[in-house]
Design goal:
This is Peptidase M24. This protein has about 375 residues and is α+β, with helices and mostly antiparallel strands. The protein has two domains: about 5-135, Creatinase/prolidase N-terminal domain (Creatine Amidinohydrolase, Chain A, domain 1); about 140-369, Creatinase/methionine aminopeptidase superfamily (Creatine Amidinohydrolase, Alpha-Beta Complex), CATH 3.90.230. It has helices at about 5-20, 35-40, 65-75, 85-95, 110-120, 130-135, 140-165, 170-185, 250-270, 275-290; strands spanning about 25-30, 50-55, 55-60, 75-80, 100-105, 125, 195-200, 220-225, 230, 235, 235-245, 300, 310-315, 325-330, 330-335, 340, 345-350, 355, 365-369. The strands form six sheets. Strands 4-3-2-1-5-6 form a six-stranded mixed sheet, sandwiched between helices. A hairpin with a 6-residue loop joins strand 12 (about 300) and strand 13 (about 310-315). The protein is elongated.
Length: about 375
């Protein structure tokens, strides 16, 4: 990525700061937590840093382990925190720059960190937790292409994994093989923040069923919710796999889910932008099939540098979808004691329409024998 994009993003951040009467804003990365926002603004992907933005520009503060990395990845000034803690170095820079009203992400720092910073800055700290979700929500073409490339890698890896899978292997073995294939196909890895969902038989009724040592059995099916990270960006896809033969109930449920997903996408293509109405378009199909009570979660969510980002697509969402949003559309039906299925794909909303970024992976009920 050319460095100009970071200047543009910091420029948008400065406009938000002006509206709030701020003369400074910082993001903290501690033990790798919150690297996404620092990367988005500065290009830096290390596991410890503070990125401070003001009218004077941006400054990236980190320690000796990351100085060379920071200077190669970011166009902004890099400051060595030296023998100081990260908090001490940040506070010192804020004082030297004379910043009086400084925004921060209250929902992205430890309470102990807040107490230390507040004890020195007091009322000059302003919670601006909404800034980064708002900035990161709108994806440019390059970001969408990175998500699409992650999805292409996932498609290749999933199909290869299916060709090697067989009844008798465990959920955990399938998940491990899939992630290994994703890495060998060119991705950084899976999501990183949590494991894939691989849930078989009655366990497939668990929307977030993490892999176990349960064996994939003949006559059952399993649901796989997975993704890849490519140059920082992730995809999020769900497919279902029959073992040996396709259960008639699962076949019927799958057809309902495909119709529900199609209806939601149709609503998007026709210009519907109220997230709650898009959710309702899919939910109505499931309700008409007599399974409305079995769709227990929202229709989707935004994604980008994280698996779950703004906006939310659910019956309670107040979000209005807009060009640049990348969202999942993932209707699911779950019957406790029997099992469940989900169909999930990733879509870019643009001024030209709606684009499925995960289209390389066929939307079908797969079978292993």
């Amino acid at each position: 990525m050319v460095f100009d994009v970071y200047a543009e993003r910091v420029g948008r951040l400065l406009s938000m700061m002006d509206r709030e009467g701020l003369d400074g804003f910082f993001v903290l990365v501690v033990e790798g937590l919150n690297w996404e926002s620092a990367y988005y603004l500065s290009g830096y992907r290390g596991s410890s840093a503070a990125f401070l933005v003001s009218r004077h520009g941006g400054v990236l503060i980190t320690d000796g382990r990351y100085l060379a990395q920071a200077r190669s990845q970011s166009p902004f000034e890099v400051e060595d925190q030296g023998g100081r803690s990260l908090n001490e170095a940040l506070l010192d820079r804020i004082r030297r720059m004379g910043l009086r009203r400084v925004g921060f992400e209250a929902d992205r720092i430890f309470h102990s960190t807040f107490l230390e910073l507040h004890s020195h800055l007091g009322g000059s700290l302003v919670d601006c937790s909404r800034f980064m979700p708002e900035l990161r929500r709108t994806k440019d073409r390059r970001e969408a292409d990175l998500i699409a490339e992650a999805a292409r890698i996932c498609a290749d890896a999933f199909l290869e994994t299916l060709s090697l899978a067989s009844p008798g292997m465990t959920e955990r073995e399938f998940a491990s093989m899939l992630e290994q294939k994703i890495v060998s196909s060119g991705a950084e890895g899976g999501w990183g923040s949590h494991s894939f969902i691989v849930a078989s038989g009655p366990r497939s009724a668990l929307p977030h069923g993490v892999p176990t040592d349960r064996v994939l059995c003949q006559g059952e099916w399993f649901t796989v919710d997975f993704g890849a990270r490519y140059q920082g960006y992730v995809c999020d896809v769900t497919r279902n796999v029959a073992v040996g033969s396709l259960d008639p109930w699962a076949r019927d449920v799958y057809q309902v889910l495909v119709a529900a997903q199609d209806q939601a996408v149709r609503a998007l293509m026709e210009g519907e932008r109220q997230a709650s109405q898009v959710d309702q378009a899919a939910r109505r199909v499931i309700q008409e099939a007599g399974m409305g009570d079995l769709f227990s979660h929202g229709l989707g969510h935004g994604l980008g540098l994280e698996v779950h980002e703004a906006p939310r697509v659910s019956s309670r969402s107040q979000d209005v979808l807009a060009p640049g949003d990348v969202i999942t559309v993932e209707p699911g039906i779950y019957l406790e004691g029997k099992g469940g299925l989900r169909v999930e794909d990733d879509y870019l909303i643009s001024s030209q329409g709606v684009e499925c970024l995960s289209s390389p992976l066929p939307r079908e009920m797969f079978v292993i024998r």
